[in-house]
């Protein structure tokens, strides 16, 4: 029987050798061993689950046609995946070579991807190469201490801390951090990398942009050294890839990254990715990659709120040994509300102008220097503007503010709006009342007095009014 097995598989290899490139044949077919043949079922042994998946992804049709040619149309192929666990009980996975990929198995309860808890031996380790010194390509200034936590990034930051503590041994693998430009994606993922190096000095960490990855792949492809490229990345313990959305026009690079991703994930290594969109919204990226991106956690970064922006500015100033009037910090934080990068850029511009002109930083200088950053400055505060600000603050529909209703949250929002309108505009009480569904001046007087009384007795109410007062004041600057 053994001779028969060897003869059948040898015939198959002869056919395959004439079809695929020599390097591919040596990489993907020479390591295979034929184990047994019974009832037209050929059992072959492959070095790892990754090896199995790659064959099924790229050579399933070739294997099916070749085996049918040798054994007839009833031929079937059974894989035996070797697991380096010290356990000889290697459960075989069976696939019908007639053909729908790797979705039909002999054990119907098993669904792909198969998770093997034991470490899988890597069949592609370069002989003689051990752990080597690899520059992680990290910016040492990107740390968790320098990354301010707020509602905008809390989930992503805390997930990042978990990953740094137990890289590869957590449920956030891969960790995908996504969000718009300048919201701190690169800072966060590099902070994870720096924390890993601090807590796990023996871990090999590498940060690479998707563009650099693609360029490296193209260089290796031109030199017929793709296997060397893949081997290198398979050595990494924590792989950080920035801006994976740029893979959309690099099909071959996606193939290489797919192989690398599978190997690292199955070997218990950590993958960290960033993108400008959620994985489900990425276009031009292979579905098989997107499905793997969704295996772990996808955490988004949002625009920081006003309080977080103030904290970011203050932390930046402290790190650089700078001082600035509080009113200037508030002015910058209130008006620069697009992203962190622009916020820091505005601060740097202000400091530069102060230094060049040898002038103390004050509100007038801030207004002058930051006019290019601020979309709408020195605008007149109107009753309508205040109404919209209060509605946004309390999440109250604008039309409800004008209607006759006794709902407490609507009544209080309306009273606060009237109070602020009286404080910040030159409109008469009658005009203010007309902006609230035609109410008269006595209603405005009553509302203003009610707000003052509640501020004396209700601490939460007082805090809300003062915060809104500050927002309107900043908008009026």
From TrEMBL:
Residue segments, region Domain I, interacts with DnaA modulators: 1-118
Record keywords: ATP-binding, Cytoplasm, DNA replication, DNA-binding, Lipid-binding, Nucleotide-binding
Domain of life: Bacteria
PROSITE patterns recorded: DNAA
CDD domains from the UniProt entry: AAA, Bac_DnaA_C
Cellular component terms per the entry's GO annotation: cytoplasm; plasma membrane
Principal localisation: cytoplasm
Pfam families registered for this protein in UniProt: Bac_DnaA (PF00308), Bac_DnaA_C (PF08299), DnaA_N (PF11638)
Localization annotation: Cytoplasm
Domain AAA+ ATPase, residue spans: 171-301
Coiled coil: none
Domain Chromosomal replication initiator DnaA C-terminal: 382-451
Residues binding ATP: 182, 184-186
Biological processes per GO annotation: DNA replication initiation; regulation of DNA replication
Gene3D superfamilies for this protein: 1.10.1750.10, 1.10.8.60, 3.30.300.180, P-loop containing nucleotide triphosphate hydrolases (3.40.50.300)
Segments of this protein annotated with the region Domain IV, binds dsDNA: 355-477
Gene Ontology terms for molecular function: ATP binding; DNA replication origin binding; lipid binding
The record's note on its domains: Domain I is involved in oligomerization and binding regulators, domain II is flexibile and of varying length in different bacteria, domain III forms the AAA+ region, while domain IV binds dsDNA.
Quaternary structure, from the entry: Oligomerizes as a right-handed, spiral filament on DNA at oriC.
Annotated function: Plays an essential role in the initiation and regulation of chromosomal replication. ATP-DnaA binds to the origin of replication (oriC) to initiate formation of the DNA replication initiation complex once per cell cycle. Binds the DnaA box (a 9 base pair repeat at the origin) and separates the double-stranded (ds)DNA. Forms a right-handed helical filament on oriC DNA; dsDNA binds to the exterior of the filament while single-stranded (ss)DNA is stabiized in the filament's interior.
Stated family: Belongs to the DnaA family.
Protein name, entry field: Chromosomal replication initiator protein DnaA
The gene coding this protein: dnaA
